[in-house]
Task: structure prediction
Amino acid sequence: MLRSSDVRTVTTPGGHTLGSLLRRYGAGEPLSCEPVAEGLLNHGYRLTTTHGRFFLKHHLDGDRVAIARQHRATRRLAALGLPVAPPVAGADGRTVTVIDGRCYALHPWIEGRHRDGAALTRPQSRHLGTLLGQVHTALEQVIADDTGGPRAPHERTGADPARTFETIDELLALARRTRPRSSFDELAEHRLLERRTLLEREAHRRPTAAQVPATGWVHGDFHPLNLLYRGAEPAAIVDWDRLGVQPRAEEAVRAAAIFFVQPAGTLDLPKVRAYAGAYRRACGAPAAELAAAVHRVWWERLNDFWMLDWRYRLGDRRADPQFPAAAALAVWWTREYAAVRAAFTE
Result:
């Protein structure tokens, strides 16, 4: 990992100085280096140099073909006027620097802040839907000439509830063994038992292969932490690491379920309605496509326990604060299924 204690001798994991890496981009000499993101797919650093401020990304997966595709896409999206932060090209024209097998990219630093749905007005929610619809439409245009891209998932049916029941039992055992027990462990046990009952009742509604919405190129991880605002306007969509081919309307529904979830685990349906209507108009998605996506994402939520997996299997508690609302949302969504579907489709 890069360190900021002495930027003159800061090194990459391979032992190269930060200054030597920056010189490949003509970005000046480093003055400060601060870590700003440490995720599963990359590490990020805020750099101040003699030429300005930058964001340095260390791509942990090291897939140069995928990274290059991301970079081409964002540069073309920027040319179309969409708010993105394309990478800086080096003297050789390349945007990916490979040092000892590790991949780095340099981006301009974008000043801005994250805003969730609670901070958005209804017109701003409409603008958000328009933006995502424009992104999906533009991606089809800018990646049309790319070959060898990721394919849509082979598994078309929804999650198998039989496997989910096994997961619930495994997580229940882990939660019950935890010592000392906390209020989180009590809540986890309650929600796991509750979810098992829900799935037993709803198992017949598992999505079939015939219910997959139209696929297309999507951002892959569109949520508040990957969208920077400057004032009331989106300044940059960032973190394109999951760019790929997926059911596009499912991304729209997943994003809404993150942006517009409320602390009690409900969705702000008036804002969802404004957002979804704008999304449909921007990309021409029919109501039936959104209806299919609502059903599949609802089922996905019923069967998904990634936050508890992180806590109990990986010992990673970063997602713990999200769990109460997310777990409650699956229950509320099941009860209010018709109203949620209507908000996305009418």
